[in-house]
Design goal:
Length: 449
């Protein structure tokens, strides 16, 4: 049996300290936690930075390092620094060294990097080793060279290589969410289908329980499957909460693709052992005839400036879409006549359909609408300039020439808020490699007081 303790769905989210203590008392074989994902958009991969506060990350990581020392087992994190880019990995490595220096701890640190060289990816594309996933954008040499960061998602094999170094702590770049959980039980001969299935269920900590915010869970893997046990005092796992997690961030609730194969849970059986624990057997792991890893990439696509105005005049609220369409048309025409360079103006209606846009069929409008102006341009200076041209329209533009000039409310002065460079995801592809470590780099260092 191999017991994997998962403190939380991600480092920086927080967790129940008492639940973590219960988990440590049950003597896990490894502590595994995710460091991020693509959930928060392309900025983090584009810039190689973390979404989470450095102070919060350091505080939680310090506690997990102490828990690891108490348990005497490895601590592994995947997708370090939210995005798993090399700079984000280095950021968490620096935090780890700081904590070790402050606590006087000696430890072995393994660092697994997932960043890909742009020119190497161009060569792989030309060699036919990069293939698109469904709905992936078309790519070219130029697009690959424009990426500010490209990462490959490591699987269990790469984490196993890091574990084989005898490291106390493993900081990994971009990994699949399941890799850090499945690696050790797979290496020790536990049921392959159960390893991958249990890892999927455990990837977000207590999300697959009745108390998602409690964070910490334990998954015990064995020769036939796995058992999931929440560590929170009030948290319970049920066949429904456990089985439902296969729907989470997955296009198929029965199939999960990973490097080297895929998981099939159509034959899985979920059994409540008591009112808190669930036992799962019958999952199947199917080995692929080729080894592929997913690629993610982001590139800079311009600069943005955002403005916000609040509209309460009932006449304008009622006709807000007409008002916004007229502003976009007139301001765009004015800007094209006065500036050089590519730009776009967008107005989003907060309180109407700012989230879904034309997909929103409710069309419910209250007494107040927030109008968010977004100017995207090829340079930061152009973005600011066009946003300044938009300013008087947002403040005084009448619905018709015969109406009195209205006045609306800017909540800030100046209303223009620069967002800096913006990025987009541009890779959703597979990279075929001959050996699991071909696209990854592993280093080891011994940290002394």
């Amino acid at each position: 049996m191999v017991k994997v303790l998962i403190p939380s769905g991600a480092l920086g989210l927080g967790y129940d300290r008492a639940a973590l203590a219960r988990g440590i008392a049950q003597k896990p074989d490894i502590i595994a936690i995710d460091g991020g994902s693509t959930d928060s958009g392309p900025h983090y991969l584009g810039t190689g930075t973390s979404k989470y506060s450095r102070n919060s990350t350091k505080a939680e990581w310090r506690e997990l390092m102490a828990a690891r020392a108490e348990a005497g087992v490895p601590l592994v994190i995947g997708t370090a620094g939210t995005c798993g880019a090399d700079d984000a990995v280095d950021w968490l490595v620096e935090i780890t060294r700081e904590i070790a220096a402050e606590t006087g701890e000696s430890l072995r640190l393994a660092v697994l990097k997932s960043g890909q060289d742009n020119q190497t990816m161009v060569a792989a594309l030309r060699a036919g080793r990069i293939t698109p996933l469904p709905a992936a954008p078309e790519i070219s040499d130029t697009l690959l060279l424009e990426c500010t960061n490209i990462v490959a998602l490591a699987g269990a094999e790469q984490i196993q290589e890091a574990l084989n170094t005898g490291a106390d702590i493993i900081i990994a770049g971009r990994t699949t969410d399941t890799a850090i959980i499945s690696a050790l039980p797979l290496a020790r001969g536990c049921h392959a289908g159960g390893c991958w299935h249990g890892a999927k269920i455990g990837e977000c900590g207590a999300l697959a329980t009745t108390s998602p915010n409690s964070g910490t869970i334990m998954i015990a893997f064995d020769a036939e499957g796995f058992t999931m046990t929440p560590m929170g005092a009030e948290a319970r796992a049920t066949p429904r909460t456990v089985s439902a997690h296969m729907l989470y961030e997955n296009s198929d609730p029965h199939i999960l693709y990973e490097p080297g194969g895929h998981l099939d849970v159509r034959g899985a059986t979920y059994t409540a052992l008591n009112d808190r624990e669930v036992r799962v057997t019958g999952s199947e792991w199917i080995v692929s005839d080729r080894y592929t890893v997913k690629l993610e990439g982001a590139r800079r696509v311009g600069f943005q400036t955002v403005s916000l105005v609040l509209v309460r005049d009932a006449h304008y609220v009622k006709n807000i879409r007409t008002w916004c369409d007229d502003i976009v048309a007139k301001c765009t025409a004015k800007a094209k006549a006065r500036v050089d360079g590519a730009f776009a103006i967008e107005l989003r209606l907060i309180g109407a359909d700012a989230t879904l846009g034309p997909l929103d069929t409710a069309h419910v409008v209250g007494t107040e609408i927030g109008v968010m102006g977004i100017v995207t341009a090829e340079t930061e200076a152009l973005s600011r300039e066009v946003a300044k041209m938009l300013n008087p329209y947002l403040l005084h533009h009448p619905l018709t020439e015969q109406e009195e000039m209205p006045t609306f409310a800017f909540p800030f002065s100046p209303p223009e808020m620069p967002r800096g460079a913006i990025h987009e995801f541009c890779l959703n592809h597979l990279l075929e490699i001959d050996s699991p470590m071909d696209a990854f780099r592993l280093t080891v260092e011994d940290i002394a007081p």
